[in-house]
Design brief:
Radius of gyration: 30 Å
Mean pLDDT: 92
Shape: elongated
Structural class: alpha+beta
Helix content: 25-40%
Number of helices: 15
Distance between the termini: 59 Å
Strand content: 15-25%
Strand order of the largest sheet: 2-6-7-10-1-11-12-13-14
Length: 474
């Protein structure tokens, strides 16, 4: 165990899910041809003026609420002045002094205990354009310039790489379910920086901070933090001093690499953006945004578990937003959520994954699904039947009854008839009966197979199994 105490803070940039950019009418999109989603505002032409996108404020209010932040009623935008090729105006419009959200938190569970990761602030800003380097040439794609962002900055309250990972996973889940962002780190719509320092005692001042920039995945954030802690521990053990610096994570080396040393603090010469009026948030604006927040993951978990779903299956379901949304159609019905979730995560998920579809690409309407679960509960359909007809259920417009009729499905559910068949098989297979009583598990599988053969697969396996075990234990 290390003798040093790590102190970690996380900064996350999240692209907002708007139709257009923050200050222009250009489309907010991804994957289009380079420089095809731009206009003179995005390109920073002299004399152009920004017009604030109202939906950006709406989404930022929702995000602040979801992250338990206080909301600032009066705010303004600032100019952050710096010179870099990805910044055509030579300044970035952001919120330096009046962030829309502040003093929030995200709650995580670490080793069975709840912990709040405190959020210092959450502010709105515009994204810069994307640069790509090809040999000695740098290329600029302005499609990303002006895409709306929120930056979420934690306090220096994270104690380990595991806590950082859990925080980012929870943050991603909350913002995705809140319809704030698609949070696709592989596309750059969620980007993370980590600030790491170490010290020997809690009462000591914080150590020299190193910032690790633009880490490409949540798992890599944890690795980068671990590597940075190790690096700093070695330096301190060797009595070496080091300056505050910026590093990047190299996923090929699985290590952090020096980018630049911060000899002096950044002087961005912030001042209020003169071309955008102060923004006043009214009660109606806040109420309208808050009431549009969908059901969030923790509320869904609680609901599913209260309806008989295991915690493991509840988490699996929440990992698939479309299936979770689909199930929520049935909240006000008497549907067995346990059976429904087993079906959604089992055969239906298998079909969807194989065919690269979502459940909304199928013909499984609300009424059809209710009927399907009813047929399964009544033993009109067995799990084997379902596998045989699943494609027709999900691809055809036919009702469940029509599909059953077309496929000539007929299951024996008459208990007296099944009892007679079970006793017949037991009497004909005395050796297997003795094997079962001797504790050999394969015996019951053999007897079940003989019963299903006798009934040509039309007996309900659950009913048969129950009768068989009862008769064998007499």
């Amino acid at each position: 165990m290390s003798k040093y105490i790590p102190t970690i803070g996380i900064e996350v940039h999240v692209e907002l899910k708007t139709n257009t950019k923050i200050f222009s009418s250009s489309k907010n999109g991804y994957g289009e041809s380079a420089n095809s989603l731009t206009n003179v505002i995005d390109l920073g032409y002299p004399g152009t003026l920004p017009t604030l996108n109202e939906e950006v404020i709406n989404l930022a209010i929702k995000a602040a609420t979801i992250l338990n932040c206080k909301i600032r009623r009066q705010m303004h935008f600032d100019r952050k002045n710096y010179f870099y090729p990805d910044n055509p105006k030579n300044y970035q419009i952001t919120q330096a002094r009046t962030p829309i959200g502040y003093d929030g938190y995200v709650e995580i569970e670490v080793n069975g205990e709840r912990k709040k990761i405190f959020i210092e602030e959450m502010h709105i800003e515009e994204d810069t354009c994307k640069s790509a380097h090809r040999g000695g040439v740098s290329l600029l794609d302005f499609n990303r310039a002006g895409v709306p962002l929120i930056e979420i900055v934690t306090k220096a309250c994270i104690s380990s790489s595991e806590e950082a990972k859990l925080y980012l996973e929870k943050l991603k889940e909350l913002l995705f379910y809140g319809d704030i962002s698609d949070c696709k780190m592989e596309e750059g719509s969620m980007r993370c920086d980590a600030n790491v320092s170490i010290r020997e005692n809690v009462k000591d001042p914080l150590g020299v901070k190193c910032e690790i920039k633009n880490i490409g995945s949540i798992s890599n954030v944890a690795i980068a933090i671990e590597k940075e802690i190790e690096r700093q521990e070695k330096l301190v053990d060797n009595h070496e001093t080091f300056q505050e610096q910026t590093r990047r994570f190299d996923d090929k080396l699985n290590d952090t690499i020096l980018m630049r040393v911060k000899e002096t603090g950044n002087d961005y010469r912030y001042f209020p953006e003169p071309d955008i009026p102060y923004v006043e948030l009214t009660d109606q604006m806040i109420s309208s945004a808050v009431t549009s927040i969908p059901m969030l993951p923790d509320e869904r978990r609680k609901l599913y578990i209260s309806r008989g779903v295991s915690e493991i299956n509840a988490n699996k379901l929440i990992a698939n937003r479309s299936l979770s949304d689909y199930l929520n159609q049935f909240i006000d019905t008497s549907l067995s959520f346990k059976e429904a979730v087993n079906l959604l995560l089992g055969d239906i998920s298998g079909y969807l994954n194989k065919n690269e579809k979502t459940i909304y690409d199928t013909t499984l309407t609300k009424e059809k699904f209710l009927d399907l679960i009813k047929k399964m509960e009544e033993n009109t359909l067995t799990s084997k039947n379902l596998k045989d007809i699943l494609k027709q259920i999900l691809e055809s417009e036919d009702s469940i009854d029509t599909i059953i009729k077309k496929c000539n499905i007929s299951n024996i559910t008459d208990t007296k008839m099944l009892e007679d068949i079970v006793l017949k098989i037991i009497n004909e297979n005395e050796e297997s009966v003795q094997d079962y009583k001797a504790g050999k598990d394969r015996a019951i599988k053999y007897l079940m197979g003989q019963i299903m053969k006798e009934t040509r697969g039309s007996a309900n396996p659950q009913i048969v199994n129950k009768i068989l075990i009862r008769e064998l234990n007499k």
